Structures are given as structure tokens and as C-alpha cells.
Amino acid sequence: MSYLPDYITWRGDLPFAADPANDLDTLVMAALSYIDLPAETQVFAQCAKSVPPDDPDDHFRGECRRLLQQIAKSSRFGALTVHDAVSVLNDEIQFAAMTVDLPDGTHMIAFRGTDGSLTGWREDFAMSFESPVPAQAAAQKYLERHLTQDAGDVIVTGHSKGGNLAVYSAAKSSGEIQERIVAVHNNDGPGFAWDISETPGHKRIASRIHTILPQTSVVGMLMEHEKRYQVVHSTYDGLYQHDGFSWQVLGTQFVHLDDFSREGKLVDETL
Questions:
Q1: Paired sense of beta strands 107-111 and 94-101, if any
Q2: What are residue 216's phi and psi, to 5 degrees?
Q3: What global pTM score does this model have?
């Protein structure tokens, strides 16, 4: 069985110029967005020097930090420039994002999911009855500001709440901005309190939204969610499948399944 770190080991010597961005690369960036990276512009190899290789208080964040240490040594990721890394946490909002420049001029914007803070969880619950929550509004502003200031196309990605922010920001942006969005990657992100798929903005971007869900997804099944999705195989059980590091990979792709597991279908029907 192979997982995201195995992909780095296998593909890390092949630069993006030789092998364009794929689904696994977007999950890598979504995972790295959980790390508080330096605010100044740096390449990942530099960032890794200032970030501890482990997090004793959070297993998932520890995995993300170890991933950073791994990619920093690779030809594929080590020399990529990361900039505009922001992290805001107060009584009202939990929000973080970063922008990565790819060699072909495309930018990848990654939004962070819930960080375990009280504010982060409060925002998650508020998503069930409020729109936009502060993090969603911040994500839209971050995307629009980037596309207004910088040239080039954009790939938007995120895991968990970050996946929700990726979809929201892309769907709420103007048609002119949406034309420059190559793809939106939603990795097991929760849905919305209302059916966003019926809005004009979502309809314009829908064909470029890639939603990834494990076979017994819980978070990705919450509220009104995307109707089109791909099911990937996780080796964990139940809610723990939300951890993207448990998703199996084969080559440059996830290991896909035809449908949810029996337990996954029950979760969807129940929710």
C-alpha cells in the first residue's frame, strides 16, 4: 500500500516542467497549508529550515510538517516559491492560506482546514446556518486579490474546511476571475447550508470542481454537497478516513473506488 509520502519518494525527482500538477500535488499543498509558514517569499527548501519536523500536540499537523521536510529535499517541490502565507486566528475567524508558484506560470492557492481551535470549530458549526462565515468571506477576498494583482492561471485547493473555502471562493468570484481558474480541488470538505450548485457562479465553475471523498466520508457528506465526486480508498476506519494521509495512491493518482462503502452510504442517508 502506498500513501502521499510514498508519492513524494517516487515522483520527487521529476519537476513540474516534465510532469504537470496532478490530484496528489494539490493534496500536498492543501496539507502544507496547515503549517504556519514564514510570511516572506521563500522556496520550500528554505521554509523547512524554520519549521520543526514534528508537532507533539497534533498528530495530523505532525504529518504535515514531516511532509514539508520531505518535499524540501525533492527536485519537484523544493525550489517552488511560496508567498502570501497568511494565518488569522481571533474570536471571530480562523483562516489561513498560501500561494505557490509553478514553473509554467500557474499559481496554486491552498486554504487551510479547521485547526482545532475553538474559533475554528465555532465557524464549522456556523456554516450550517450562516453564509458567509468570516473564513469564507476572507477566502473570496484572498482569491480575488491574488487574481487582480498577479498574472497567470490559478488552481485552488483545500482539505476539510479548506475544501469548502476553495469551492466558495471560486463560485462567488466574478466571471472574469473565474475564467482564470483552471481547477478547484475539494478534498473531503463539508457542504453548504444552502444548495450552492444552483447559483450562477457555481454553474460557471462546476465542471472544474474536483471533489475527493473517502469511502466512508462523514465531513464531506455534511449539508448540501457536490453531486459529482470521486471516491478514494482510505485504510482508516470511520471518521478517521478524513485524514488525507490515509488515502491510498497508485502512481500519480489516488486509488479510486466505484462507490461509497455500505457504511458510507448509511452515513450519507442519515445525514
A1: antiparallel
A2: -125, 50
A3: 0.95
Q: With the C-alpha atoms ordered 250, 256, 261, 267, is the resulting torsion angle positive or negative?
A: positive
Confidence of residue 218 (pLDDT cuts 50, 70, 90): confident
CA separation (Å) from 259 to 27, 90, 147, 167, 210?
21, 40, 36, 22, 16
Is the peptide bond prior to 132 cis by the omega test (within 30 degrees of 0)? yes
**Cell numbers describing residue 253:** 493518482
Euclidean distance between CA atoms 72 and 66, whole angstroms = 10
- What nine digits make up the cell of 177? 476571475
Q: Is the pLDDT of residue 171 over 90?
A: yes
DSSP state for residue 221 in the 8-state scheme? G
Other C-beta atoms closer than 10 Å to the C-beta of 258 total 6
d(CA 15, CA 74): 9
